[in-house]
Amino acid sequence: MAGMSGLVSVRDARAAVLSHCDPLPAAEYRPAAALGLVLAQGVVAGEAVPPFRNSSMDGYALRAGDVATASAASPVRLQVIGRVMAGDDPSGMIIGDGQAVRIMTGAVVPQGADAVCMIEHTEPAGSAGGAEEDGAVLIAHAVSPGENVRLPGEDVDVGDEIFPAGTVVGPAHVGVLTSVGVQTVRAIRRPRVGVVSTGDELRSDGGPLAPGKIRDSNRPGLLARLTSDGFEAVDLGWVADQPDVLAAALERASEDCDALLTSGGVSVGDADIVKMVLSRADSALWFQVAVRPAKPFAFGRVGTRLVPVFGLPGNPVSALVSYELFARPALRRMAGQRHLLRPVVQAVATGAFARRPDGKLHLARGRLGYGEGGELVVSALHGQGSHQLRALADADCLVALPDGHGAQAGERVEAWVLGEMPATDPD
Ligand code: AMP
Ligand code: MG
After folding, report:
1. Distance 198 CA to ligand 2 centre (A)
2. How confident is the model over 339-352, as pLDDT tens digits?
3. How far apart are the CA of 200 and the centre of ligand 2, in A?
4. What values do phi and psi take at 298, rounded to 5?
5. In the chain, fewer beta carbons within 10 Å around the N or the C end?
6. pTM for this one?
């Protein structure tokens, strides 16, 4: 095992782990199923958007030249020869001089017309209050050629490379892909990630807790984290502290998963079986990372497919923080993502973030907000122990406190944003 004596920086430990995690192969996905995935191949449009000349307004399609002098004081009267709704095909219709057609948004602009006057600038002038289609319309506003007319291909033209390889598919991409009739895209496969818990003390069936036992909270927490990060999460259950059982479980799971997460058993205790099992794996690593929480971390690749296994620590906060530091960036790399880390912001501490020098980076659970002047501020949450998961649940960021004495109120600190930034809406 490429064990390292002494503490290893987060950066060095992460670099070592990332060097063993390569992007997965591509697969075909329907546009909606590709949400969050990275395109492995650029997409070329086979259809134009819009596919035909259409109106951007409800109003009257007409010849701009006919209404060049129109105004509220002296409207121009046009003969209405018909009506075109969105979805209609007005192929036979031709608008001549002095004529107009009632038109709805998205409807084909008939031949002969070169502009649309919005309904607000018109008034029906039908004979004896009859339907306007039978009569005439008064146009009280001049329109220029092309006004309120959307041209074919204005958004996407046939042959355009709409999205290059490397694009992360978002909701609007799904819409665009569908609008040009794309049935499937090639995208890097969504990593399928199995989660297994270790520890004789764990109970995971919801039954009563016998003395000395605790509930297995890491597994559901990690599974939820994976789902929330866009990976496919696979529940592999729990194994007792028996190295052979764990080794067999990992081996079996490696046939069906692209990566595996374990929690517990990576420290220096007597029952640290994950560390023991991974020490026999391919590309084995074990670190004491210069970070708090999440100091111990083990890694190895198992099975014939050499599937990466991330040996996260057992303490609930450490497990999720270790996931953030090592597993999430590696899984994002496997998913073909270019940005591996969380966004970092600078925020003003609302109170002290106390710590002592110990050679480690401290990651405090914090909550972002806005100060009176609109500046981004961050507060420390109560309960910063690595066993106190509640503060992490309430946190929207990890405040990075370099080795030293921490930060005082009013000082600027660096915060790694875990979820969404706080909203600025008044509420
Ligand atoms: P370990 O590294 O296995 O010694 O675990 C460190 C601490 O984390 C111990 O207090 C464990 O009981 C706790 N722990 C380990 N696994 C889990 C889990 N799946 N859910 C909740 N706590 C756990
Ligand atoms: Mg344990």
Report:
1. 6
2. 999 999 999 999 99
3. 7
4. -125, 155
5. C
6. 0.93
